[in-house]
Amino acid sequence: MTEMVVEASMALALGAKLCRPKVIPMYPITPQTHIVERLADFINNGEMEAEMIHVESEHSALAAFIGSEAAGVRTYTATSSQGLALMYEILPIVSGNRMPGVMSVANRALSAPINIWNDHSDAVSARDQGWIQLFVESTQEAIDTTIQLYKICENHEVLLPGMVCIDGFTLSHVCERAIVPEQEAVDEFLPEYKPKIMLDPEKPVSIGPIAFPDSFMEFKKQQQEAMEKALPLIGKVHDEFAKKFGRSYGNGLLEQYRMDDAEYALIGMGTLTGTARVAVDEMRKEGKKVGLIKLKSLRPFPKEELIKATEKLQGLAVIDRHFSLGFEGPLYTDTRSALYGKGIRIKNFIAGLGGRDIDIKRLKKALNDTINGKEGGWLL
Amino acid sequence: MIRGLPEEEFFASGHRACAGCGAPIAIRHILKAAGKNTIVVQATGCMEVVSSPYPQTAWEIPWIHAAFETAASTASGVWRALKMQGRENINVVAFGGDGATYDIGFGAISGAFERGENFLYVCNENGAYMNTGIQRSSATPFGASATTTPAGKKIPGKREFKKPVPFIMAAHGAPYVATATVADPNDIFNKAKKGLETKGPCYLEVFSPCPTGWHSDSAKSIEIARLAVETRIYPLFEIINGRVKITRDVPEPKPVEEYLKTQGRFKHLGSEDIKTIQQRVNETWEKLKKMEESGCKY
After folding, report:
1. Same structural domain, A241 and A259
2. Quick one: closest CA in B to A89, which residue?
3. Is B18 domain-assigned?
4. Domain end: A224, A245, A266, which one?
């Protein structure tokens, strides 16, 4: 293993390289660019055996991703914001055809007004399209999650695609200390991809047929069953990784911080949880029994794990870095649905849209407002 | 069965294409040229619908369909994966209609050809979005009535000429571009074979009647395709490494009217429009002849 101070994008590229994808279709978009630039360096310098397809759009990137996965090789791509939006048509085709590749999403606001900074509107608004979505907090977690996610996605009981969501700029462009695992150890953990079915003239299959109303629902139900199987597997693969590499992130689905005796807590995803740890520490010093739940897996949603994590709570402040216009924060919707009837006061705070800072002050306000029975709102 | 062509079939009968549809004829003969060791990537369209009603399939070789505009991009992914696996001996053939090729998938095709991906792209050209109900595409011929360019009292059908896609593909530097019609399966077979044997992105366009969309007699599809050649409406040529070669000379062309009158989509046309079409056909043919004679490269 190599310990280094590294930009998260470089770390992600190193993480992706360790997974040995053979095809990388990619189209550049800020703030994903550093990831694919580093991969191009690896390939062009002969440090990585892979084909990079310099497609003319994100739409084609994901369409090529399908072709390469279907032909039976491990495939990787990365995108962000409008790029993910342009891929939208293909997202459910990847998952519906059960292609288990991994995509990094450097989360960025959706236009308009055009804005290149971080929020979760790109990935969260794509949450219904059959992709496993794991949000990470740190550079180290980005590397480790990428390696775990291939193993989860490629499991023959799952066969779903996955996104590793990293906050654009606030993580993608930040330099942190990270440990890059040894190739040999990763190879042991993540063996070569063995597709369940593939395009092979010796054994012809038809992939992507038309399904009429008499069979379409069965296809969708099978995808949901795969999601249900993915949920415990995320935890299992996480534990296996922790045992081998000595690093863990809660139970792989969510992580709890100072929750043992907490009466109130924050829940959020991505880098804001790093700041939230400090907010929690400060409020603990003020004598308030508060904690943090870092939600890592948005899809599949760890309902039972969340119920268990919150059973002693009186109140929960949900921080959404996205807003479902016309209603409320989507994480709030999911959290309330999961905790329906549990008697916990749940408040919704919208924060950090388009790169707006989420500082300690704002997070403490969210917690204090929840403790004081005030309504949620926009943390402008 | 056509004498001289392989007997083995890779596109099974029993698919759900309409009577008189040209596309399955094209697919059958292209696959005869490609053989068993082939992967097909299909764009959304009639051929995807009629060939793959789950749990049935007409494809006896590996086949994949992703979306409407993705035949070239998905084929790129397939090809690169084959390259990494050392399976470069497998043919990759992408099929799309003219809507998928001329319009919605055009950017993806352009990208794949610019990158020099190694596959044969086949466009089944029947001049409209037939799968969705005969809407205008940029391959719809001038004057034709389509459901979105109907022959109205004020505007009598489509007012624009079709996009010259084979030449645009040649301008990308494609090593092999060709046109064919379903009236000559041997020609389809031979041109497909050349396209598959040529390394790099190759483009084959097959002119293919659609009785449902053209309002033509389903028993006369082959005749109509032949007439398209004999009237010079659809010239047959190859562009090899940028050099144009007419593969079927038509020294004494029949008037375009003979072709137009076989189809209901042209029945509203007045003499002015027919004159315009004839003039355009003459110009295109002259241009083609000049390109062939000059030997200048695209």
Report:
1. no
2. B67
3. no
4. A245
CATH number at residue A344: 3.40.50.920
- Rounded Cα–Cα distance for residues A33 and A35 (Å): 5
Residue A173 shares a structural domain with residue A271:
no
Q: What is the CATH number of the domain that holds A206?
A: 3.40.50.970
In a domain, B6, yes or no: no
CATH number of the CATH domain containing B33:
3.40.50.970
> Per the structure, how many domains does chain B have?
1
A224 and A263: one domain?
Answer: no
CB A55 within 8 A of CB A77: no
Spans of chain A, pLDDT less than 70: none
- Give A64's contacts in chain B (Cβ within 8 Å): 73-74, 76-77, 80
Domain that holds residue A230: 2-245
With an 8 Å Cβ cutoff, is B64 touching chain A?
yes
Residue B1, in any domain of the structure: no
B36 to chain A, minimum CA–CA distance in Å? Answer: 7
Chain A CB within 8 Å of residue B65 CB: yes
Contacts of A54 in chain B (CB under 8 A): 115
Q: Are residues A47 and A111 in the same domain?
A: yes
Task: Let me know if residue B17 belongs to a domain.
Answer: no
Label residue B197 by pLDDT band (50, 70, 90). Answer: very high
What pLDDT is attached to residue A1? 78
Residue B286: pLDDT band (50, 70, 90) is very high
Q: What is the pLDDT of residue A106?
A: 98
So what's the pLDDT on residue B3? 81
Q: Does A264 lie in the same domain as A235?
A: no
How many residue pairs from chains A and B have C-beta atoms closer than 8 A? 161
Please write the tens of the pLDDT for every residue from A260-301.
999 999 999 999 999 999 999 999 999 999 999 999 999 999
A63 to B90: CB separation less than 8 angstroms, yes or no: no
For residue A143, give the nearest of A164, A159, A117, A113 by alpha carbon: A164
Ramachandran class of B126: left when φ > 0, alpha when ψ lies in -120 to 50, beta otherwise: alpha
| Cross-chain Cβ contact B76/A69 below 8 Å | no
DSSP secondary structure of A344-362: -EEEEEE--GGG----HHH
Touching A: B residues 246-275, CB under 8 Å: none
Q: What is B105-124 written as a DSSP string?
A: THHHHHHHHHHT---EEEEE
ipTM reported for the complex, 2 dp:
0.97
B207 secondary structure, DSSP code:
E
Strand, helix or coil at A15?
A: helix
Query: Is B62 touching A (CB cutoff 8 A)?
Result: yes
pLDDT tens readout for residues A238-247: 999 999 999 9
Angle between helices B185-197 and B23-34 (to 10 degrees): 50
Which A-chain residues 65-124 have CB contacts (< 8 A) with chain B?
Answer: 65-73, 75, 89-90, 93, 97
CB within 8 Å: B81 and A54: no
Q: CB-based contact (8 Å) between B115 and chain A? A: yes
**Looking at the 3D structure of chain A, how many domains does it have?**
2
Decide which of A223, A245, A267 is a domain's last residue: A245
